[in-house]
């Protein structure tokens, strides 16, 4: 799979990540265990989406008025700084990134050096870009794996929830969330009958996910 071809344009991607973050909030009451998350006001003029699989791999997406950038880290990749004799970013990953987007990663919470691939797109661009990186034969930067965790259809998310959270979700309700239908208490209860629906609703409100 070509990871870049699989990516939707930034606004669609942002909506997808908001939907998945809202669903994870409903399905899991422990914030650090959630697979998908979204912070509307992460930094000034910047919102952040994150995929974190709990096994040491992550994908961070930053959306701004200047454009969008994502930094991925596959801890088993040969391109990981931790796999080098001297801890350093693999050559080429950041070389071609526009400075105004690369600067978005200059934040202690991002851990810029923990990276195996970087993808970006200025707002005026018609496609996503990825650095020219020479990889050892048989190496994998983790981009297909991590971008594959952006579930672009309700059916894909339902399968993910079954595998990861061991929950069977009503696909018609997940479809509503994906379509941007305002989440209601009834929808929360249908998705996760065991949760404290009022508390979940308040958390979704406080996170500006509804």
Annotate the secondary structure layout:
Blueprint: H1 3-6, H2 10-27, E1 36-43, E2 46-52, E3 58-64, E4 67-73, H3 99-102, E5 117-122, E6 129-130, H4 143-147, H5 154-164, H6 171-178, H7 185-191, H8 197-206
Antiparallel strand pairs: 1-2, 2-3, 3-4, 4-5, 5-6
What can you tell me about this protein's structure?
By secondary structure, the protein is of the alpha+beta class. The protein has one domain (3-206). The protein is 32% helix and 18% strand. The chain contains 8 helices and 6 strands, in the order ααββββαββααααα. It has helices at residues 3-6, 10-27, 99-102, 143-147, 154-164, 171-178, 185-191, 197-206, and strands at residues 36-43, 46-52, 58-64, 67-73, 117-122, 129-130. Strands 1-2-3-4-5-6 form a 6-stranded antiparallel sheet. Strand 3 and strand 4 (67-73) form a beta hairpin. It is globular, with a radius of gyration of 17 Å. The two termini are 33 Å apart. The mean pLDDT is 95.
DSSP helical segment count? 8
Helix content: 25-40%
Low-confidence stretches at least 5 residues in length (pLDDT < 50)? none
> If you average the pLDDT, what whole number results?
95
Question: Largest sheet at a glance?
Answer: 6 strands, antiparallel
Q: In angstroms, what is the radius of gyration? A: 17 Å
Instruction: Report the end-to-end length measured between terminal Cα atoms.
Output: 33 Å
Arrangement of strands in the largest sheet: 1-2-3-4-5-6
Overall 3D shape = globular
State the secondary-structure class: alpha+beta
The count of DSSP E runs of length 2 or more, i.e. the number of strands, is 6
**Number of domains in the coordinates?**
1
Q: Strand percentage, roughly?
A: 15-25%
The helix-strand sequence is: HHEEEEHEEHHHHH
